[in-house]
């Protein structure tokens, strides 16, 4: 063991590549267009480029094992041998991707949001009989890989307590079992891993425990004490950094302080240093540069915080508040941004430079006490209150909509998007580059809408969508048409696996200069006698999936966006659109991790949604959609949205949410087709899922739909899957008619 920690570090770094090299390599491998050796070479090159760049920027403590082919929680399950038998394959990579994406006849593991971020992780399954065994190949290989470049690294792993708290019990687990019951067994595997890393000459290991910043049960501090007491007492191990982020450690801080770990990481951007005195004698890895936003750090404030922590706790290391996985690579590539705005921004490279600079300034500053309360200050503000007038009661609306829309029992629809073909993406890029004109591009969009409408009519869907061929992303598209936003060209951030998004930058007051979606919705409706949904993204989600200005309270920013959505709803109605979907998949995502703060958030988030939608007439059917976000935890808030129809993820979680829904009082569409997997569900499988849903949801209120939009799938997959969905709905209509 060694007690010397470098003066500057980051808790993690982006891994997709500045130009999404990993995305392209993965999709090529999955489609059989390249070999495993090709994929591994791309991965090796990305890791090497990252380490060399971090070293060139002057960072002293380099992390390793932050690269992943899909997800770090899934990597941890493999490392621990926690692989359900149904996924095991002779090929280890086939096993890995089967867990993430499914395989022929086998659904993938559940996927949900990583705390309050838009990153998704794969949920491990742990049962009383799960056999744990160490597979240390990946972290060891990365240590050796970096060492061959002349660089020493610190392996980063999901900690044992967080791993188990984020896992779910296997379906056959007895009542009362929780994955945390297996802590002792898991800790023994970590102990063997630490011994192997020590034998490899590794000086430090980082164990991430972000679950400790959320409210925990009374048993959880005991789990922390047991895990790190056991690991800390190992005779042959590297020094341990236990890193927390996304908030305050709270009661877990003194517990960690009482264990033999050498260092504790604190998020001093979203959290505070309350109780930091307890860490005297340990190294405090102080996260003063935000890993969650794109704004330059307030250097003077960050330095004052670092000095005060050093005065109260001792040795301080400068770091990011969390992994930089959540921000793009390099703002200097964004030459199209307004220079004044660009000067305010810091992406991953700039944040590393800030960490290095702060470490140098701290080292040059003599230790002395500086008053510092450690708490973030919300600037004074005046909020404009918007009170939504109530729509008619649901029973009145439902009757009016039934008369107006004349839909069959168990109506079939989709969530909105259809496959984004390579031709569409190339045309959009060519338009942006000035290589084709607006007229040529719009002609292609019209042709795609015509194809999508014709396909849905041929398959027999009941409420159609225009397929969103004109949209690059469900948030970015709106950001491009609203004042107050800027969009990037290279600002990609990983959402899950090969899926990346470019979060817009919300830097000013939001206004809608003109209608955004009306033109294409009206055109699609002109092609069919069936209702076509107007497709909008809700105000909470637009804000949640953007990098948001930090000079206004979040609720005020959300209400500015809600004003724009409300105007769009009104214009869609005027254009004759009588089904309007306003998606809020991020509603659960933004719920604060501490219960004491949750009620206030949900109150204003629901109020913003209702303000955006309550101007619609009773004849207009309002839909909303939530996906992959543990929506069962906020059912009261979902109910309070007062949407006429709510669609939710259900296929991948095997109907987990339905048990919590109970007698949901309005229309409900539990997804029957997992669009994040290339699997095509059969009609029998869909029928079983719908039959299960009908035990909870009355036939007159059950909708039939996929889990999410179809943009990531191929037309071949979509057509086959939707044909099976329509067939299953038809069988049940006949049975229940």
What does this entry look like structurally?
The relative contact order is 0.09. The chain is built from 24 helices and 21 strands. It is globular and about 75 Å long. The strands form 6 sheets. Strands 1-5-7-8-9-10-11 form a 7-stranded parallel sheet. It has a 5-stranded parallel sheet with strand order 16-18-19-20-21. A 3-stranded mixed sheet has the order 12-15-17. It folds into 2 domains: 59-169 and 177-363, TIM Barrel; 402-473 and 517-736, TIM Barrel. The model is unreliable at 369-382 (pLDDT under 50). It has 737 residues and is an alpha/beta fold.
Secondary-structure map:
Layout: H1 21-30, H2 36-56, E1 62-64, H3 72-79, H4 92-101, E2 111-113, E3 120-122, E4 125-126, H5 137-148, E5 153-158, H6 160-165, E6 168-169, H7 183-199, E7 204-208, H8 219-232, E8 239-243, H9 252-257, E9 263-267, E10 283-289, H10 299-313, E11 316-320, H11 339-342, H12 348-363, H13 394-405, H14 422-432, H15 438-459, H16 476-479, E12 483-486, E13 493-496, E14 499-501, E15 505-511, H17 518-525, E16 533-537, H18 539-544, E17 547-548, H19 554-574, E18 579-583, H20 598-613, E19 621-626, H21 635-640, E20 645-648, H22 658-661, E21 667-670, H23 683-693, H24 715-736
Parallel strand pairs: 1-5, 4-6, 5-7, 7-8, 8-9, 9-10, 10-11, 15-17, 16-18, 18-19, 19-20, 20-21
Antiparallel strand pairs: 2-3, 12-15, 13-14
């Amino acid at each position: 063991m060694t007690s010397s920690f470098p003066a500057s570090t980051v808790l993690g770094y982006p891994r997709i590549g500045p130009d999404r090299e990993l995305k392209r390599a993965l999709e090529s491998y999955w489609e059989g267009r390249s070999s495993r050796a090709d994929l591994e070479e791309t991965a090796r090159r990305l890791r090497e480029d990252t380490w060399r760049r971090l070293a060139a920027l002057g960072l002293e403590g380099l992390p390793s094992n932050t690269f992943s082919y899909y997800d770090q929680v899934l990597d941890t399950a493999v490392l621990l041998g926690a692989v359900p038998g149904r996924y095991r394959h002779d090929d280890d990579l086939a096993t890995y991707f089967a867990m993430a994406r499914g395989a022929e006849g086998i659904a993938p593991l559940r996927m949900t949001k990583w705390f309050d971020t838009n990153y998704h992780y794969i949920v491990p399954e742990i049962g009383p009989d799960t056999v744990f065994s160490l597979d240390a190949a990946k972290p060891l290989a990365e240590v050796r890989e970096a060492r061959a470049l002349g660089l020493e690294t610190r392996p980063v792993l999901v900690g044992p307590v967080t791993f188990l708290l984020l896992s779910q019990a296997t379906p056959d687990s007895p009542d009362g079992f929780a994955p945390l019951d297996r802590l002792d067994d898991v800790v023994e595997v970590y102990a063997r891993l630490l011994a192997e890393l020590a034998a490899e000459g590794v000086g430090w290991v980082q164990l991430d425990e972000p679950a400790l910043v959320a409210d925990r049960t009374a048993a959880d501090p005991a789990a922390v004490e047991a895990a790190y007491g056991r690991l800390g007492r190992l005779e042959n191990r590297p020094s341990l950094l236990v890193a927390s982020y996304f908030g305050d450690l709270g009661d877990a801080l003194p517990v960690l302080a009482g264990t033999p770990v050498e260092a504790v990481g604190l998020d001093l951007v979203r959290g505070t240093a309350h109780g930091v005195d307890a860490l005297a004698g340990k190294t405090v890895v102080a996260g003063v540069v935000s890993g969650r936003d794109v704004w330059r750090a307030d250097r003077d404030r960050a330095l004052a915080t670092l000095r005060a922590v050093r005065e109260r706790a001792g040795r301080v290391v400068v770091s990011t508040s969390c992994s930089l996985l959540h921000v793009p690579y390099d703002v200097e590539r964004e030459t199209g941004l307004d220079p004044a705005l660009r000067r305010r921004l810091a992406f991953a490279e700039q944040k590393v430079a800030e960490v290095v600079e702060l470490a140098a300034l701290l080292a040059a500053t003599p230790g002395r006490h500086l008053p510092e309360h450690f708490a973030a200050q919300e600037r004074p503000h005046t909020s404009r209150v918007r009170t939504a007038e109530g729509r008619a009661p649901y029973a009145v609306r439902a009757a009016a909509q039934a008369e107006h829309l004349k839909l069959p029992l168990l109506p079939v629809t989709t969530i909105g998007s259809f496959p984004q073909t390579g031709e569409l993406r190339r045309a959009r890029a060519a338009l942006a580059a000035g290589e084709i004109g607006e007229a040529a591009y719009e002609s292609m969009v019209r042709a795609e809408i015509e194809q999508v409408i014709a396909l849905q009519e041929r398959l027999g869907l009941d409420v159609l969508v225009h397929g969103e061929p004109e949209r690059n992303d469900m948030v970015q598209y709106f950001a491009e048409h609203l004042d107050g936003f800027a969009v990037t060209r290279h600002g990609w951030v990983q959402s899950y696996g090969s899926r990346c998004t470019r979060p817009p930058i919300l830097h000013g007051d939001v206004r809608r200069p003109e209608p955004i979606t009306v033109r294409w919705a009206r055109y699609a409706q002109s092609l069919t006698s069936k209702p076509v949904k107007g497709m909008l993204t809700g105000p909470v989600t637009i804000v949640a999936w953007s990098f948001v200005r930090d000079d206004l309270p979040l609720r005020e920013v959300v209400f500015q966006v809600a004003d724009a959505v409300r105007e769009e709803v009104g214009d869609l109605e005027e254009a004759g659109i009588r089904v309007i979907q306003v998606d809020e998949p991020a509603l659960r995502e933004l719920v604060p991790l501490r219960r004491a703060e949750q009620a206030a958030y949900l109150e204003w988030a629901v109020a913003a949604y209702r303000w955006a939608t309550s101007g619609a007439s009773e004849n207009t059917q309002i839909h909303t959609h939530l996906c992959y976000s543990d929506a069962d935890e906020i059912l009261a808030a979902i109910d309070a949205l007062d949407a006429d129809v709510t669609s939710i993820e259900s296929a991948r979680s095997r109907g987990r949410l339905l048990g919590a829904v109970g007698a949901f009082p309005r229309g409900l569409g539990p997804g029957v087709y997992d669009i994040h997997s290339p699997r095509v569900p059969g009609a029998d499988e869909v029928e079983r899922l719908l039959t299960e849903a009908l035990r909870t949801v009355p036939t007159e209120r059950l909708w039939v739909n996929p889990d999410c939009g179809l943009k990531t799938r191929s037309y071949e997959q979509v057509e086959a899957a939707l044909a099976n969905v329509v067939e299953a709905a038809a069988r049940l209509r006949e049975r229940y008619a």
